[in-house]
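Retro notes - structure team

What went well: the batch runner handled both jobs without manual restarts.
What didn't: labels got mixed up in the shared folder, which is why I'm recording both outputs here explicitly, each with its sequence directly above its tokens.

Job 1
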Amino acid sequence: MEHRWIRWAPAVVVPVAIAAAVIVTPLAAGATDLPVKSPSDVLRLVAASDTRSFSGTVEQTSDLGLPSLPSTSSGSQDASAANALELALADHTAKVWVDGPTKVRVQVLDRLAERDAYRDGSDLWLYDSKGENVSHATLPAHEASTPTPDATSLTPSQLAQRFLDAVDPSTTVTLGDPVKVADRDAYDLVLTPKTDATLVGSVAIAVDGKTGIPLKVAVTAKGSSSPSFEAGFTAFSTDKPDSSVFSFTPPKGATVSEQKLPTREDAAAAKGTHPKPTVTGEGWSTIVSLPAGSAPASVADDPLFAQLTQPVDGGRALNASLLSVLITSDGRVLAGAVPVSALQAAANAPAQ
């Protein structure tokens, strides 16, 4: 990718993608036959879940209030950026197969194409049927048995876990009425921020009554009556997927590119080249800031950046229903699940 895109991508794409990855049709209430539990009981049910193999179909929908992405040619760098955003934020149907931490397949189904990600032990494959492009990488021996961090990021279980890991005194945890998801009985665990300084109104997590796996996650913005982003299983099975599901052979005529993954030494060497973020606030009102120069002046000339942001005092801002990002005139980047005004106040606060 061009240097300018790499530099400002963390300013907009990464915070929005993170928001998409941790905030996800209202839960369907229905008659269930579940034992009575407290919110603490359900939290323990999730924590004790030991289901390692499952498969299913996930529906993802979002209404973050963002403008439509600009149309770009398929071979341009802006097209790559737009595709990344579209994958994170647009409505999608995905099929998911998981057999332990090192056998994972996610198949995103588009209208006229599909995108697949495979992990089978040390082999990683990415396939995009548009253009028949294939990327392959091999994990180093010392990492071949480690989980793939984002391999199941499209599943409600992974999305929910990010929220559950962050539950602290700034959150009220309650239970709604039991619900049905993918024809399974589930507890409706509701996380509500105690502060008014966040854009998030509530997070509803449907927890499978038998396995403890989160089946659906829906996040509603403050003042809204419907979720801004949600993902949930429409079909779910705990049967172990056949091993052939995780094997991939490039289609005839496809272009295969071998990718070299960074080693631990590479990662350590690169660590000092990236600007160190500053974190202010706490809980739901946390703001993450990157120093001046993190977003170069040339970012203003990028059509995708201009399409996604609007001018505000002090710079330009991306204002979504659940997330705000501010890029100041001196290249600082501030992001959080807070109003743009909160980012502006943080940008204008005296340095500590």
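Job 2
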Amino acid sequence: MISPLRLRLDAAALTRNWQTLARMSGRAACGAAVKANGYGLGASDVVVRLAAAGCRDFFVATWAEAAVIAPLGGVVSVLHGVRAEDMDAARSLAGVRPVLSSAAQVARWQAAGGGLCDVMVDTGMNRLGVSAEEIRGGLLDGLAVETLMSHLACADEDVAMNAAQRDALVGIADRVTARRLSLANSAGIALGPDYAFDLTRPGLALYGGVPRGEFAGQIAQVATPEAQILQRRMLRGGDTIGYNATFTAPHDLPVAILNIGYADGYWRGFSGVGTARVDTAILPVIGRVSMDLVAIDISAAPALGEGDWVALDYDLPEAAARSGVSQYELLTGLGARFKRVWC
């Protein structure tokens, strides 16, 4: 079946973004967060390209995600640790480590033989992670820890909490026999060398997101949704279009109905503010974005018709500002109906 939706993916931009982040990481190794199916772009395809560029450390959320990319090379860390239900996978997947984040997970891992693992310590996020007090109390004694990591809560802002979390990680590091320390996500890399430690873990910026101003002009767009025109029609002056009749044509204008909607991750926030384009022609979204359909004004490209393709403007910082949807959601929400095309 031929999909009416394409997600055009720029492999060179992805590689350049990782190289930029690796350079900004200084002496630290630069890994890659490829959870949520590579932030929606396709984890296997992302891993193959980043591994070819030199990336060796990959981060996923679950063991099911790890199983997909484990055969592709590099080392995979599972950020959600290891449940009892995960132990069979943990024993069988080569090159995959749990990131232990609770006393129960530590006990479970030790009971299974206590092989090499990573550990998440909570330094103020209050989400996942063992506490500094538990570590000082001996929770990790005898455990073979490769990477002791934490996660910045506010790295996209210039706030005192960033330094407090950094200092908390340093303050507990000498109590753990870990080979590496890791703290910085994409935004954390821009905070400077004091946050890089031994390993950085970028995610959003790999895929074209810009979490801090320092990245402006350095991070390239990777993903561009493209949709096929399902129908062309003419609105007469005074006609309305779409749910709740939120758009009224001020005069006669040609309209194209696109085979895309919020079920594909093109969110309702783009209603009346999103744009598409063909070559240099800008085509405004008119009316409400619905589940499977979007209407655009094609006055600037009147030759367009049924079966033609248009690209949706999807520069992540700009698209987030227009739609009110975060850059993360714009990526990870891209649906399964897209045919992912790497170029």
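One thing worth noting from job 2: The mean pLDDT is 97.
We'll revisit the folder naming next retro.
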